[in-house]
Amino acid sequence: MARGTQRYTDEDFESLDGRASRTEQKKAVQRMAALGEQLAQLNKKQIQKLPVDERLIDALLEIQNISAHEARRRQFLRIGKLLRNEDETVILSYLTPQQGAKKQMQLMRWVDRMIDQGDPVINEFSKVFNASERHTLRQHVLRIHRDMKQQVSEEDLAASKLKFVNYVQQVALLSEQG
């Protein structure tokens, strides 16, 4: 017996809207672990001043005493897991001053261009910043376009843009590192 083709409606997709795929979740964990590596490069005083949970500070200080490769890898995964509970914006605001104001302005121009021009600029950005994922960039841009089309509240639109800016900043930090 042949299987019938299933027709999906917009409602089917709306129920999944905003949900990350497993691949996107794994990539996010890897990005958080890489951000943990960047945080671990700060000196002891800077780590202790971080506005984050005490367990994360302890884990970051502990990594400086670990020399075995596999143990460090596991510790960075743990740090990445702890970072998921923290506010991304706060952590990025602590790391981005190392990039400088000029770099921040360049990234904001990239964000504006990607929102305005779409795929050609996304492809160009992906070539320049090798840690980026084209699919994730497109999803952020499409979400912002959808929000503008549906005329959602200013707060919701600003939240979508903030998520996009945070992702672009993470990618820029990780591309410099790698």
From TrEMBL:
Entry GO MF terms: rRNA binding
CDD domains for this protein: YjgA-like
Domain of life: Bacteria
Keyword check for Coiled coil: no
Pfam families hit by this protein: DarP
GO biological process: ribosome biogenesis
Signal peptide as annotated in the record: none
InterPro entries (alphabetical): DarP, DarP_sf
Record-given protein name: Ribosome-associated protein
UniProt source species: Acinetobacter dispersus
